[in-house]
Amino acid sequence: MYKTFLRPLLFKFDPEKVHHFSFSSLQKASKIPGYKSFAKANFQLNNAKLEREVFGLKFKNPVGLAAGFDKDAKLFKELSLLGFGFIEIGTLTPKPQDGNPKKRLFRLKEDQAIINRMGFNNEGVDAAVQRLQSNPNVLIGGNIGKNKITPNENAFDDYQICFEKLFPVVDYFVVNVSSPNTPNLRDLQEKEPLTNLLLKLQKLNNEKPKQKPILLKIAPDLSNAQLDDIIEIVETTNIAGVIATNTTIERENLESEHKTETGGLSGKPLTKRSTEVIAYLHEKGKAKFPIIGVGGILSPEDAIEKLKAGASLIQLYTGFVYEGPSLIKKINRAILKEMH
User: Fold this and answer.
1) CATH number, domain at 54?
2) CA pair distance 152, 190, nearest whole angstrom
3) Which residues are within 8 A (CB) of 210 and not within 5 positions of it... i.e. 6 or more apart?
4) What is the pLDDT of residues 77-86, one digit of tens each?
5) Above pLDDT 90, what percent of the chain?
């Protein structure tokens, strides 16, 4: 129904407006009597064989929602009904910010892709913390970044504010230094600043009575030498794992009219590269740390490929937009089938 009826209709309108429309529609739908039973029957697949224990947390299945979709933690309850094993909110910054000027979100239909240059638009960490107080038992990741106006030398202050405020209401953290849409943010991926940032966050973490996993989200555009640095940084800082990958700034072999737009590209063109990064980290890192695989998962086959390459968990975003909520259950079914 989604691909034959809903998607063609939604794709006629501006992507950002559709995003907000979908949010309000899902919120309204979830209030209809019987909706929860409908969602459970149609979208959820509960099976003990799908459960995963990764970095000390128990996931009811390995398919999560990537950051960027529910930035402000407005819809995590409704989204959890669609069968996700975990939901990552954010990227959040200490102060609210509007992000980049519109238009900043583009569908590349022929390429099954999206380009975004949102620029960490969010209502600020405090608003999200407020909403997360009423978590109905879904695993939540908190993806944290810095405000655009904060210079890189003061970046840690922003990450610290988000870390401290979110600590009581999220299950794990993701340090985002890989978005291409905040000026100079990717400079923080360099070995020295990144090591310092993660060591300081780990120090805060270690001061807590019970620590929470901290993961690093990396760009797909890193060279093998830079990926070697990432492996070394994970070992040095003892963080819990890596999310591979964020969006790409590459623009190879695209056909859509919006292919020249600036921003991060996600979806099908990223499938191969993100799997290569996962495989490289898994092999060179000797499988010592878990990897969450994300980037161009538009089918159960794409998901299985990521898991075989070495991902412990996977996340959807663009695939969820193009394929609809049924993709989650299809992937979980395929995972069960692989196990036989």
Assistant:
1) 3.20.20.70
2) 12
3) none
4) 999 999 999 9
5) 98
Q: List pLDDT tens digits, range 83-103.
A: 999 999 999 999 999 999 999
Q: What is the pLDDT of residue 36?
A: 94
Q: Is the pLDDT of residue 107 over 90?
A: yes
Split at pLDDT 50, 70, 90, the class of 135 is: confident
- Tokens read off for 44: 């959820």
Look at residue 53 in the predicted model and tell me its pLDDT. 98
The strand pairing partners of 215, in sequence order, are 174, 241
Q: How far is CA 26 from CA 75, 200, 225, in A?
A: 8, 39, 44
Catalytic residue among 179, 266, 274, 312: 179
Active site residue 326: no
Domain region containing 9: 2-339
Residues 6+ apart with CB under 8 A from 28: none
* Residue-level pLDDT at 31: 96
State how far the alpha carbon of 160 is from the alpha carbons of 120, 179, 186, in Å: 17, 18, 18
Angle (CA) 146 289 203, round 5°: 45
What is the C-alpha separation between 150 and 127, in angstroms, rounded?
A: 20
Per DSSP, 268 falls in state G
Say how many domains are in the chain. Answer: 1
Task: Extract the annotated binding site for substrate.
Answer: 71, 116-120, 176, 181, 246-247
Q: Which one, of 334, 309, 318, lies nearest residue 244 by Cα?
A: 309
Q: From the annotation, which residues make up the binding site?
A: 67-71, 91, 116-120, 143, 176, 181, 217, 245-247, 267, 296, 317-318
Q: Among residues 306, 308, 222, which one has the least CA distance to residue 272?
A: 306
Which residues are documented as binding site for FMN?
67-71, 91, 143, 176, 217, 245, 267, 296, 317-318
pLDDT grade for 137, boundaries at 50, 70 and 90 = confident
